[in-house]
Design brief:
38% strand, disordered C terminus, 27 strands, 6% helix, disordered N terminus, six-stranded antiparallel beta sheet, mainly beta, twelve-stranded antiparallel barrel, single chain
Length: 508
């Protein structure tokens, strides 16, 4: 492709991306669309966000390729010849899982035929987020894709390589055209910025993604029949996420994957995603790689932690809770049941700030026991403590400051509560503390949950706009049976965690 045509292609992609910035789309939801064959992402390119912990996606995608004559290419990239017409429906499948809200890994199936047709192409992929959750509106990740090379039964003496469309092609091998072609391994780095909508309550947000990759993002850039344009591995994309209410989203996407400009739309119903897309918008129809391709996608989203589909679900009432009054800066007031009602060794499930539930035992004296031997947690500190970062003891939490998320302020609603991990998922971070919302909720979130201590959560609701009336007063603590627990600790490294963790020694 000539330089002017390449510039026009890139300008066209930029125009598509700019157009999406004015289309309505969902804010800060972290429900990233499913890519065609490599887990969450846009169409071909990845994003920096990863799936939430123990959320699993299974995706099928397919597109049609139709060219009047299949190009036949010799080893030196010379003597192009027109072969028979080529029409085929290409299919791909993938499975991905999120781990610890930092890692996404999975497997991809791009070809499952016999050796004469190229053999099996069953690959793997993974991505790890490298920024802490306290960094707002920006994610950075590093990832790797691996797809084995097709074989064609050893009929040729070439080192075949997988192409970017995901099917075996005997014309693609290392050394074709006298140039290196290595695409089995595709490392990349990617950054994604989340931009909230400009209006006070827009019901949409925008994500902008840019990155660089080797392998399939850059291999073959010297081959005229393979590329329409090439950036040398740079890829960019944009998506607008439109909230349709009741946890439903519409994602409008456009991208440049290093070779082609692609666009698509995807409807996210929570446990099911359906999409349509067009690849190589500027294709000239000269080869299977340089012709426009249209396809569809279907993806199932499963929450392994609850063994059920991740449906949007209604905004129902909070689960049954043990009510705790709001703590002052140096003291946590704990509501306790009478000692006679607490059997020694009573098992209790605690939802940690990591989104993982752990089982502990509570004695009649209020001690928290952990491990097979039932050792009191206070005897293991400061060397052993519960995982996660908590708001208890933080100045902004103790002073009742609002939580600013996506341009909207949320304020405390009632005293801290007990909540099960299976009903909430992380959606953002505030001052280094993770912020959760009910599974399936989308912005503007009706309720946020902030971890105060292991097993204890503070509800936050949107602050009414000015002039809408005064905010609800704090809940009265009269009639609550409480005991005070001192928060002093000689270890400076435990100052932040001590209020959150020590509160557990008296939780009933």
């Amino acid at each position: 492709m000539t330089r002017p045509h390449r510039r026009l292609s890139l300008m066209g992609v930029a125009g598509v991306l700019a157009l999406t910035l004015h289309v309505a789309g969902s804010a800060q939801t972290l429900r990233v669309p499913s890519s065609l064959r490599y887990g969450s992402g846009l169409l071909h390119i990845p994003v920096a966000s990863v799936l939430p912990h123990l959320v699993v996606t299974g995706t099928y995608s397919g597109f049609r390729v139709s060219v009047p004559n299949l190009l036949i290419v010799d080893r030196n990239r010379e003597g192009f010849a027109a072969g028979e017409p080529f029409e085929k429906w290409m299919s791909d499948g993938s499975v991905a899982i999120g781990l610890f809200n930092r890692v996404e890994a999975g497997a991809t199936l791009q070809h499952f035929g016999d050796e004469a047709e190229g053999g099996r192409m069953v690959g793997a992929f993974g991505r790890i987020s490298v920024l802490p959750s306290s960094v707002r509106y920006l994610d950075v990740a590093a990832g790797l894709r691996y797809v084995p090379a097709p074989t064609f039964g050893g009929r040729y003496g070439h080192d075949f390589q997988p192409n970017r469309l995901g099917y075996p092609d005997s014309r693609i091998f290392d050394g074709v055209g006298g140039e290196p072609f290595n695409s089995t391994l595709t490392p990349y780095v990617v950054g994604t910025a989340r931009l909230p909508g400009l209006e006070p309550d827009p019901g949409y947000d925008i994500t902008l993604t840019a990155g660089w990759g080797g392998g399939m993002f850059s291999a073959g850039r010297e081959l005229e029949f393979y590329r329409a344009g090439s950036s040398g591995g740079l890829f960019v994309g944009s998506a607008v996420h439109l909230s349709m209410g009741r946890g439903r989203l519409v994602n409008v996407m456009a991208e440049y994957d290093g070779f082609d400009a692609n666009a698509g739309v995807q409807l996210d119903l929570g446990g099911l995603r359906l999409g349509a897309f067009s690849l190589s918008l500027g294709g000239d129809g000269q080869s299977t790689f340089r012709t426009a391709r249209f396809g569809v996608l279907a993806s199932v989203v499963f929450c392994a932690g609850t063994a059920s589909p991740c449906g949007p679900g209604p905004h129902g009432p909070a689960p049954d809770t043990v009510v705790l009054p709001a703590p002052p800066p140096d003291t946590v007031l704990i509501e306790q049941a009478p000692a006679a009602e607490l059997v020694p060794g009573t098992p209790v499930m605690l939802c940690l700030a990591t989104g993982i539930e752990v089982e502990v035992s509570i004695t009649a004296a209020g001690d928290t026991l952990v491990g097979p031997a039932g050792v009191a947690i206070r005897e293991l500190r400061p060397g052993v403590d519960f995982a996660g970062t908590y708001a208890g003891g933080e100045d902004w939490f103790e002073l009742g400051d609002p939580v600013d998320l996506g341009g909207r302020e949320y304020e405390k609603s009632g005293p801290p509560i007990r909540s099960a991990c299976r009903g909430i998922v992380p959606v953002a971070g505030y001052e280094g503390v993770p912020v959760f919302a009910a599974t399936g909720d989308a912005e503007p979130y009706p309720v946020l949950y902030v971890p105060v201590a292991p097993g204890l959560w503070q509800r936050y609701t949107p602050r009414p706009p000015p002039g809408a009336g005064s905010s609800p007063s704090r809940s009265s603590t009269s009639g609550v049976r409480s005991s005070a627990v001192s928060m002093s600790d000689s270890s400076s490294s435990q100052v932040r965690r001590a209020p959150a963790s020590r509160a557990l020694d008296a939780v009933s």
